[in-house]
Amino acid sequence: MKVGKLDWDDLKYIIDNSRGSIRDDVRIRSGIGEDCSVINFGEYECVVSTDPITGAEKNSGKLAVNINCNDIASCGVEPLGMLVTILAPEGSSLEDIKNVMQEIGEETKKLNVEILGGHTEITRAVNKMVISCSVIGKGIKDRAVATSGAQENDDVIVTKSLCLEGTSIVVNDYEDKIKNILTDEEIIEAKGYVNSLSVVKEGVIAGEFGVNSMHDITEGGVLGALWEVARASKLGFKVYKENMPISYITKKICKEYSIDPLRFISSGSMLITTKNGDKLLDILKSHDIEATIIGKIVKENGILVEEGIEKEVLPPQRDELFVLKERIV
Prior knowledge:
Radius of gyration: 19 Å
CATH architecture of the largest domain: Alpha-Beta Complex
Family: Belongs to the HypE family.
Protein name: AIR synthase
CATH superfamily of the largest domain: PurM-like C-terminal domain
Strand content: 25-35%
Order of helices and strands: HEEEHEHEEEHHHHEHEHEHEEEH
Number of strands: 13
Distance between the termini: 20 Å
CATH class of the largest domain: Alpha Beta
InterPro entries: HypE, PurM-like_C_dom, PurM-like_C_sf, PurM-like_N, PurM-like_N_sf
GO biological process, one term: protein maturation
Structural class: alpha+beta
């Protein structure tokens, strides 16, 4: 099997055939595109999610905190606690683990998230450090937003710029090769993208505004996220490539290595669907969050319009980050 997430059909089969018991107190269940489960606790509900970091060498602690807290934020809920598991390969130093935990501690403080517990060990089962986190959030009953809630004619919004995570990983992990493509100033800017990966602020704002659906854009990029939202909601979408917010630095890297920025890992950008996109854009802007309407939710089919030509969007495959890594070495 190739490196990266399992493809949609295989993953769906595994989930459908190994879910365990079905409980009445679980209101929203995780699944394809539905990264969180929502559990009813009476007046309140608990939102839970989990994810590992495997594709980055540097800033793995920062990434681990943000991608997991972003999942909770995609339900419109503020994350409050995190469990951290670190599996380090034989030969790792105590300093390696301390550095990662320092990153995790600094990021969780920024987000007002408490580290509730976890597990740390040295093991021969891995050849590089693997960080896996589980996060919980607390919200008012029936208020959490589901990925599957998109409605026909919703505006489709993305926040900030796409590919912030992918660009940051590549520039931080392969600076010696990227310096032949980017200027020193561009490298500094791209390294700084790692500080813009949280979507907690916009997730909570959108949740309070009352949107129909949200999904943080991770592996598979914006097209993968769109496909998952549409599939979960049993609808389609029509979006425009010319509307996609992508930095000139990301475009230079993608052009050099012939990868598609629309399928490039994009933590730091939230996908939102709502009936009143313009009003939400104004609210986000008032909080210094840039956002762009890229298209609409439609009745069926996923369509990307590029230079006036409509192209069907296929199910997400492995992320372009893994393709780039094969080409950059």
